[in-house]
Specification:
The complex is a heterodimer of chains A (477) and B (257). Chain A is α/β, with parallel strands linked by helices and 477 residues long. In chain A, 22% of the residues lie in helices and 35% in strands. Chain A has one domain. Chain A is built from 11 helices and 23 strands. In chain A, helix 3 runs antiparallel to helix 8, helix 6 crosses helix 7 and helix 9 crosses helix 10. The two termini of chain A are 34 Å apart. With 257 residues, chain B is α/β, with parallel strands linked by helices. In chain B, strands 6-9-10-3-11-12 form a 6-stranded mixed beta sheet, with helices on both faces. The longest helix of chain B has 15 residues. The termini of chain B are far apart. Classes of the chains: A alpha/beta (477), B alpha/beta (257). Chains A and B meet through helix 9 and helix 10 of A and helix 2, strand 7 and helix 3 of B.
C-alpha cells in the first residue's frame, strides 16, 4: 500500500450496533408477508392491492446482470422484510422516543431531541423499517409543508399519495423497484404547496440496525407550482460479515417553475478490506420535471456500500425544464460502484448537466454509466456531461459507459471525460511546500471533487468532508 | 553577507533505481550566498536538487548534509520545507480545483504552525500576498487560477518564484528555472529572484546554460560532471564554460553522455 492509499483507506466509523429490543417478521417473502407489513402499517386496502400487484409482477422478473459489478446470488427468502424497535414510540412527542434511539442518532451526528436538534434542518429519522421521529413538523405545517413518514402519509394524505406514487418509477420499472413497491416499509413524504419556498432543509436519515434484514424505503417529494425545496438524505449501517440489501425507490415531482434539490450522502457499511460484508445498495431514484421551467437537481456523495447500483435521473417533460446530476463516488478496498444518471429530454428547450467524479482506491471498481436521451419532440435540447475518474494506487479500476441517444437534430451535446492518478510527484510537490501527506491527499481529492461539493448544502458539505477525511475549506465559499 | 554556514554537503552519494548518480558531492553554502551548479545533461544537477528536498525516489547511499546545524537527511520533505528549504521545480505539477491562493496559504500556515506562529486567515494572507507581489512587481493574475493548471511554461516558472517570495525560505534551490523560458520571461523571473536575494537567504541555482547567470549573478560557480563537483570558481567560471564547453572540465577518461 502506498503512503497515499494509507490516508484514503480509513476505517468505517459508523459500524456500531444499537442494543435495542426489536420485533421482526421471520425471513421470507410471500403475499402473506406483504399483507402483514401492510397491516402493521395500518394501510388502506388500495395500498395493499398496489403492493400485491407489484409483487406478482416482481415474481415474473429476473435480476439485472448488465451492471459492471460482481456478487453472489441473493436469497430473497433469507431476508427479513420488516424490523422495528419494540414499543414503538409515539412520534407526536419526541420526549417519548426511546433514549437508545435518540442516542443512536446523536452518535451519528443527527441529534433529534428537542434541545439538541439541528437548526434549519427538519429531520425524519428512520431506524430499520420505521420512522422513529420527525422534527419541526409543526413549524413546517405553518407554511403548509407536509413532512412526515410515508407510512403516515398513506393514512393521512391518501389522495396525494395515490395521485403521485408510482407515477415516476412505475412498480414494474425494474426488478428492484418492483421488489421495493411490494415490501417498502418506511421513508419520507414531503409536499410543498404552491408558491412556498420551504423554510427549512428537509432531511431523512436512514439507519439499518437489525441483522438479516433488508431496508426498503420509499420517498416521495412533490413540489407544487412555483415552490422550492432542498432535501438531504444520509445513511449508515453496522459493521457485519453478512451482506444486507437496501433497495430504495425515490420519486420526485416538480410542477411548473418548481425546484427540487436532492442531496445524498451515502455511507452504508462498505464491507471490510477483503470485501466481506457490506450493504448492497440497489436504488432507483428518478425525478419528473412535469412543469414548465421546473428544475430537479441530484447531488450525491457515494462513499459507502459494498455494491452500488444507482442512476438518479430526470424526466424533462416540461418545456424549459432543467435536470442536473452531480456525483462523487468513492470505491475503496473491494467496493464496487456502477452509478450514473439518466436524463430523458422530452420537452422543448430542456437542459441537463452531468458532472460525475469517480475515485477508486485499493481494489475498488468504479463505473460511470449514464444515458442522455433526446426525444424527437425535444427541440433545442442541450446536455453537458463531464466524467472524471481518479485512481489512487494501481489495483483499482475506473470505467465509463456514456450512452447518448439523440433523435432531434437541433440538440447540442457536449461530453468531456478525463482520468487522472494521484502520483507521488503531486504529493512530493505539496510536501516540498510544507504540507503533510495527509493534507496533500485531502487537497488533491478535494480539488478533484470541488465542482460537486459546491453543490451540497453547507450542512452536508461538512459531513462529506468528514467522510472523505478531507478539508473542504478550499472548495466551499 | 555573513559567515554563517547554512548548508554543508559532504561526500554525498545518491542513487535512483539502483543507479548511482551522485558520487561524492561536497559543497558549502553560507547565508546570503548564491551558488550556481552547472553541468551537462545527466551530470546529476537535478538529482542534487531533488535529494536536498528529499524526493522519495532517490536513495542517499553515503555522505552527509547539514543544514542550519541539523542533519538534513534525517528530516522528512515537509519538515525540510518548514525549516526553510525551498525547491523551485523544473516541472511543477498541477493541482486541479485548488486555487494558487488557497494552496499558498495552506503552505504558509503549515510553516507558521511549525514555527509556533498563529495561522493567517484568508484576509490576513491576502495582505501578505499583496505586499509580496508588490515587492517583486507582479500582479495577482495567477492567484485565483488552479495550481499550475493550464499554465504556460513561463507562468509555471513564475509561479514557483512567486511561491518562493511568499514562503520566505532560507535556502532556495532553483532547478533549471531558465529551461523553456524566452528571454523576456527569463528576465522577469531573474529580476524577481534578484529582489529576493538577502543576507538571510542563500540560493543554489542549478542550470545547464550560462545565460541565466547573466541575470542572476552568482558568488560561486561549481561544475558538476558524472556526479562530482569537478571545478569551482567565481562567476567568471560560467563565462569560461560558455566559451569552452563542458568538455573542458570533463573528468579524465570519462564520457559525458
Amino acid at each position: 500500500m502506498t503512503s497515499i492509499e494509507a490516508h484514503v483507506l480509513q476505517p468505517y466509523k459508523y459500524g456500531f450496533v444499537t442494543d435495542i429490543e426489536s420485533e421482526s417478521v421471520p425471513p421470507g417473502l410471500s403475499e402473506d408477508v406483504i399483507r402483514l407489513i401492510s397491516a402493521k402499517k395500518g394501510e388502506p386496502e388500495w395500498m395493499l392491492e398496489w403492493r400485491l400487484k407489484a409483487y406478482r409482477h416482481w415474481l415474473t422478473m429476473t435480476e439485472p446482470t448488465w451492471a459492471n459489478v460482481k456478487y453472489g446470488p441473493i436469497d430473497y427468502q433469507a431476508i427479513s422484510y420488516y424490523a422495528a424497535p419494540k414499543q414503538r414510540p409515539k412520534v407526536e412527542s419526541l420526549d417519548q422516543v426511546d433514549p437508545k434511539l435518540l442516542e443512536t442518532f446523536e452518535k451519528l451526528g443527527i441529534p433529534i431531541a428537542e434541545q439538541k436538534r439541528l437548526a434549519g434542518v427538519a429531520v425524519d429519522a428512520v431506524f430499520d423499517s420505521v420512522s422513529v421521529a420527525t422534527t419541526f413538523r409543526a413549524e413546517l405545517a405553518k407554511f403548509g409543508v407536509i413532512f412526515c413518514p410515508i407510512s403516515e402519509a398513506i393514512r393521512e394524505h391518501p389522495d396525494l399519495v395515490r395521485q403521485y406514487l408510482g407515477t415516476v418509477v412505475p412498480t414494474n420499472d425494474n426488478f428492484f423497484a418492483a421488489l421495493n413497491s411490494a415490501v417498502f416499509t418506511d421513508g419520507s413524504f414531503a409536499y410543498i404547496p404552491k408558491g412556498v419556498r420551504c423554510p427549512l432543509e428537509l432531511s431523512t436519515y436512514f439507519r439499518i440496525n437489525a441483522s438479516s434484514t433488508g431496508q426498503f424505503e420509499r420517498t416521495l417529494i412533490i413540489a407544487e407550482e412555483g415552490s422550492h425545496v432542498s432535501y438531504l438524505e444520509g445513511c449508515s449501517a453496522p459493521t457485519r460479515d453478512e451482506n444486507q440489501l437496501h433497495a430504495a425507490v425515490v420519486e420526485l415531482v416538480a410542477l411548473d417553475n418548481a425546484q427540487i434539490k436532492y442531496s445524498t450522502i451515502q455511507n452504508w457499511y462498505p464491507g471490510d478490506e477483503e470485501g466481506k460484508g457490506g450493504i448492497y445498495n440497489f436504488v432507483t431514484k428518478r425525478g419528473a420535471c412535469r412543469g414548465r421551467n421546473s428544475k430537479i437537481s441530484w447531488t450525491q456523495v457515494e462513499t459507502g456500500s459494498a455494491i452500488t447500483w444507482k442512476y438518479p435521473g430526470c424526466l424533462l417533460q416540461g418545456d424549459g425544464s432543467i435536470g442536473e446530476f452531480y456525483s462523487v463516488a468513492v470505491t475503496n478496498h473491494r467496493q464496487q460502484a456502477d452509478t450514473g444518471t439518466k436524463m430523458i429530454h422530452i420537452g422543448k428547450n430542456t437542459k441537463s448537466t452531468i458532472v460525475s467524479k469517480g475515485i477508486s482506491a485499493g481494489h475498488g471498481q468504479n463505473t460511470y454509466r449514464g444515458l442522455v436521451k433526446i426525444m424527437k419532440g425535444a427541440e433545442g435540447a442541450r446536455n453537458y456531461s463531464q466524467c472524471d475518474s481518479m485512481l489512487i494506487g494501481d489495483q483499482c479500476g475506473a470505467h465509463t459507459f456514456p450512452y447518448i441517444d439523440v433523435r432531434n437534430s437541433s440538440a447540442i451535446m457536449e461530453h468531456e471525460a478525463s482520468t487522472s492518478k494521484i502520483g507521488e510527484d503531486q504529493i512530493f510537490y505539496c510536501k516540498q511546500r510544507g504540507l503533510s501527506a495527509e493534507d496533500a491527499v485531502s487537497m488533491i481529492v478535494n480539488g478533484f471533487c470541488k465542482e460537486v461539493f459546491k453543490e451540497l448544502p453547507m450542512e452536508f458539505a461538512v459531513e462529506a468532508q468528514n467522510l472523505l477525511g478531507i478539508s473542504l475549506e478550499g472548495s466551499v465559499g | 553577507m555573513t559567515d554563517r554556514l547554512l548548508l554543508e554537503i559532504k561526500d554525498l552519494h545518491a542513487s535512483v533505481e539502483g543507479k548511482e548518480i551522485l558520487r561524492g558531492v561536497s559543497l558549502q553554502v553560507r547565508s546570503g550566498e548564491v551558488h550556481a551548479v552547472m553541468g551537462p545533461n545527466g551530470s546529476g544537477k537535478s538529482t542534487l536538487a531533488q535529494v536536498l528536498a528529499g524526493h522519495p525516489a532517490y536513495t542517499v547511499t553515503g555522505g552527509s548534509v547539514r543544514y542550519d546545524g541539523k542533519d538534513l537527511l534525517e528530516l522528512d520533505p515537509e519538515e525540510r520545507a518548514r525549516e526553510g528549504v525551498f525547491l523551485a521545480f523544473q516541472y511543477p505539477v498541477s493541482i486541479r480545483g485548488i486555487t494558487n491562493s488557497y494552496f499558498l496559504r495552506s503552505a504558509v500556515n503549515a510553516i507558521r504552525k511549525h514555527k509556533g506562529e498563529p495561522e493567517l486567515d484568508p484576509l490576513d494572507f491576502l495582505q501578505v500576498l499583496e505586499d509580496k507581489l508588490k515587492a517583486i512587481g507582479w500582479d495577482d493574475s495567477l492567484m485565483n487560477r488552479a495550481v499550475n493548471e493550464g499554465f504556460s511554461g513561463g507562468e509555471k516558472k513564475r509561479n514557483e518564484i512567486l511561491q518562493l517570495a511568499v514562503l520566505e525560505p532560507r535556502l532556495a534551490i532553483l532547478d533549471e528555472t531558465d529551461s523553456g523560458l524566452d528571454i523576456d520571461a527569463l528576465k522577469t523571473v531573474a529580476e524577481a529572484v534578484n529582489m529576493l536575494r538577502s543576507p538571510q537567504r542563500s540560493f543554489v541555482v542549478v542550470t545547464h546554460y550560462q545565460r541565466l547567470l547573466n541575470y542572476i549573478v552568482p558568488d560561486y560557480v561549481h561544475v558538476l560532471a558524472e556526479g562530482r563537483i569537478v571545478k569551482s570558481g567565481g562567476k567568471e567560471l560560467a563565462l569560461t564554460l560558455e566559451e569552452k564547453g563542458y568538455d573542458w572540465v570533463k573528468p579524465e577518461g570519462a564520457a559525458v553522455s
